[in-house]
Amino acid sequence: MILKGEFVPGERLAEIPLAERLGASRTPVRLALGSLEHEGLIEPSPGGGYQMRRFTLREISDAIRVRGLVEGFAARLLAEEGATRPLLRALHDCLSAGDKAVYKARMDLDDYAAYVEMNDTFHRLIMDGCGNAALKRSMESLMGQPFAAPSAMLPMQSSMEEGHQWMQQAHRQHHALVQAIERGQGARAQALGEEHVEIARMNLDYASERPELAANLMPGLKLVGVHPGK
């Protein structure tokens, strides 16, 4: 609901109306609000209870960059400790699916959907496969931040003239990352993981420069202040 743009910054979030809207009792709603405050998605309201907070572009960009650090280190661990054969097969399946989606003259909506599914799976495999519980918890926390997830900014990319080329570039990085893992090149895998998120940060910049388009494609961006009337 939050990332779908159903709330605006400063909007009060009261237990009873939310419980009625969700068809739930007040107790789980109260617990959920406390969890959202802990994650930094909402803040205490001056009149009591909670309200939606506004995020800055810098906060979102920083969260994406931190995701790169976490994923880069996870990739390094995989390269240095060795990935299992089933994991490598699954990663290569992702590469094949991505190749099919992006390496063509023009991508249609089904291709974009296939790429998003592949991309989410690829990044999840890296995190699950690294075997580091602390890293996974850090990633789970980051996933709660608006538009920090691996495929969060892809709707903007699908709207731009250069989007197809950027997607091909990102997928070439997927190939290079798997190659580094297979060859045990930890430092290279880490560097690739950190560099990989720069395309997402470029997408965020693109959205900030085109607020009306961003509001149509990604309504939740109104929380980040890149919408008309900012």
UniProtKB/TrEMBL annotation:
Residues annotated as transmembrane: none
SUPFAM superfamilies noted in UniProt: GntR ligand-binding domain-like, Winged helix' DNA-binding domain
Boundaries of every HTH gntR-type domain copy: 1-55
Keywords tagged on the record: DNA-binding, Transcription, Transcription regulation
InterPro entries, sorted: GntR_C, TF_FadR/GntR_C, Tscrpt_reg_HTH_GntR, WH-like_DNA-bd_sf, WH_DNA-bd_sf
Coiled coil (residue ranges): none
Pfam families: FCD, GntR
Alphabetized SMART domains for the sequence: FCD, HTH_GNTR
Molecular function GO terms recorded: DNA binding; DNA-binding transcription factor activity
Domain of life: Bacteria
The protein, known as: GntR family transcriptional regulator
